[in-house]
Amino acid sequence: MRLSVFLVWVFLFLSFAELSDAASLKNDVATEELLDSVDSEAKIRLEKGDISGAIQIFEDFLKKYPDSFEALTFLAGIYGLKEDFQREKELCEKAIKINSKHADAYLNLGNVYVGFQDWPKAKENLLKAYEFAKEQKNIPVLRTSSYNLSSFFLVSGESNDLAIKWADQCIAYLPDSFMRGEGLPRGVLGEFRDDNKRLIWIYESAIMNKAGAYANKKNYKKSISILENYLKIYPHSSDVKDMLDWVKKKI
Known about the structure:
Layout: H1 3-6, H2 16-22, H3 29-47, H4 51-64, H5 69-81, H6 85-98, H7 103-115, H8 119-136, H9 139-156, H10 160-172, H11 176-180, H12 194-216, H13 220-233, H14 238-250
């Protein structure tokens, strides 16, 4: 049995905060301040669970500024929260027509195609997201697209070696402090800020992808070593512990 059967591999979207911070390219100076205000208001609605209200805020903005590719991508992400992936796809495609190098939109579009199980288009768009993010030094998209490419190669079974390569690439875009566990109170994630918790979760997920790929290659000792080293830093991870127990049983 392949390790990918043991775990449910997750493809990440940018968090709403990361999407705002990524800001590959600004629309223009005249609308930037207004877009930031709309963004902040939408975040408040989302924190309250008012998805419809957040959607309405961006739709009202887009009536005045229909060529705002960033607003289109923000709105697409909110439709993703509603699991309206067809609408999300349409909005991402519209954003890309306006700005053909908008890395954030390619990332979300790649994830949509994962949901549709259209693997060639998923890979194509995730690779474009990484390419344009690298050109623009867009760290949130570089990190997330690297992780998603790792998951893609693992889930599709196309290449364990590429799954490992992209997991390593994802980890390279994380702050060094996360690899050392610095600042984490007793390794308990719940006591940390949401943004930091997300980065730790991405790190953990990349580690599990890497360990999973080695296990698929039947290099169980390497897989175990990766998981045990992670647990030395973050000993409270139940998912990593469960995976470690499973791999040990394969020997």
